[in-house]
Write a structure and sequence with these properties.
Helices cover about 60% and strands about 5% of the residues. It is built from 9 helices and 2 strands, in the order αααααααααββ. A two-stranded antiparallel sheet has the order 1-2. The chain is globular.
């Protein structure tokens, strides 16, 4: 195996806001480690509160009408990538790697999990920063602002998230199968 593959460390280039401190590397590593320690979906909400407190941008979002929709949307988008809901760890890692556009070949399973956790921390921090910089505070509803910020950030930080959203069936579409006398609805 080549040393280039082992030395690969993807770095996200996110624009830094004027007057806002970016997430420090020590804080990023601590938040990623804490993210990997979560055992239940209920703990994810407390984790989000901790990450909001970690940066100036997050502190600007905390306690505002944006906080509720932000927690709800990130819970839907990010929590399924974590082994909180069960599921095979390999499947979760592959799904997360596709969403973040990462190549994890050659890394140990622990390193894969940690790199993915770091990307999740980056994504959440970037959404917080985009919300704090958003000048359309009164023009749109908080839920619409949070969704727009996530889509803006996902273009660069998590391009697979946009592809996944494009392939998600709507309310009137879906998959099902028949098992004996019952119909089992999939992906709902």
């Amino acid at each position: 195996m080549t040393s280039r593959l082992l030395a690969y460390r993807p770095e996200m280039e996110l624009p830094e806001a004027q007057g806002m401190l970016a997430l420090q590397q020590e804080d990023e590593l601590a938040l990623a480690a804490h993210l990997l320690e979560l055992q239940a979906p209920a703990q994810f909400d407390a984790y989000l509160a901790r990450q909001l407190d970690a940066t100036a941008a997050g502190q600007q979002v905390r306690g505002t009408p944006l906080e509720g929709p932000l927690r709800q949307l990130l819970g839907k988008v990010v929590a399924p990538l974590l082994p909180l809901h069960g599921g095979a760890p390999q499947v979760l890692k592959r799904r997360a790697a596709r969403i973040f556009g990462m190549e994890l070949e050659g890394l140990s399973p622990e390193d894969k999990e940690f790199e993915l956790a770091r990307q999740v921390v980056h994504l959440i921090d970037a959404v917080n920063t985009a919300l704090a910089q958003d000048g359309a505070a009164g023009a749109r509803a908080p839920g619409a602002r949070v969704q727009a910020a996530l889509l803006q950030v996902a273009r660069g930080a998590a391009p697979g998230l946009l592809r996944q959203a494009a392939h998600t069936p709507g309310r009137d579409a879906g998959r099902w199968r028949r098992e004996g006398g019952h119909i089992v609805v999939l992906d709902c």
